[in-house]
Amino acid sequence: MEVLETLYNEIIRFLGVSQAWDLLKSGDYAAFRTYDGIVSLIYPIIPLLLLLELILGFIYKKPQTKVYKVNFLIYIFNRFVGRFIAIAMVTLIIGLLQPIAPFQTKLTWYWFIYGYIVWEFGHFLYHYWGHKVRLFWCLHSTHHAPEDMNLSVTHAHFFLEAPYADTIRTTVCILLGVQPELLFLIMFIDGTWGAFIHIGENFLKDGRLGFLNNIILTPSHHRVHHAKNPLYMDTNFCNLLNIWDKVFGTYQNEEESIKLEYGITREMNSGNFFDVYFGEIVCLVKDVIGAPGLKNKLLYIIMPPGWSHTGDHKTAKVTRDEFRRNELNLDVQLDVQVMDGE
What we know:
By secondary structure, the chain is mostly helical. It is built from 15 helices and no strands. 62% of the residues lie in helices and 0% in strands. The chain starts with a helix and ends with a helix. The relative contact order is 0.10. Keywords: Lipid metabolism, Membrane, Oxidoreductase, Transmembrane, Transmembrane helix.
């Protein structure tokens, strides 16, 4: 019975309905107009959409069960291994850094906008380094391993990634004056939207969301981010406001002529939990052991994925630049053919 009770509690926790259920049982329906009440109604939306997305996958005969299976195993593993680490890091950083912040924001609409821009900058930094530093890529690659996009990908993270991400994002926000109450509000909104943008084609065929595609980061933009097509690699690092991608030149729209191909460029078994979760760490260890000299060993750890001490680099930047050159040469050849035809 204890096992069944534990399983029941885990299911309730995953669905995020426990808080709303407690409020319903209390009979205090006015509580749903409070912040906690609103959160209790919003939180279950993503898990319920995930279940609906899975059902639609079976209806359309495109369930991608391999992706769901591995992501579910990752979720269970992370629940036991990294349950409280990220929360502890956020609490520690707030306690250490808030006293030295030059100023403090307040819970107003204009400070909320400021706070969100600051949070998005912190998110951009963490996400950018997660793609550009090999050690951090080992933590982040688990999230990019699935060869299909769906809401279960939200749970596909190495257990140390959340502490690393929250350390950077919280540090940036607290040092720039974002008070904890405002920070937690932003984290909730950003986490909910960050889960939603992983919604798959089974549920939402066109992820552009109409005119919103020109204003915020949509599921379409995030599908581009998860794609391994050369044009799409290492783009769209933001989560909701794509301001920093536009500032730093990493913004990329989805091209209708280029079919999205999800996953990572390394040959791997995306249905194997250990390869998805630890595969990049194993590859890094092999490269470090095989590298000549201490300098090269260190460079393998801090340089982008695909960097090689031999100079034969296969980084995302090299791959993307090569694709653009080939595309430009093709355009020139077509122009010449047209002129010859005339």
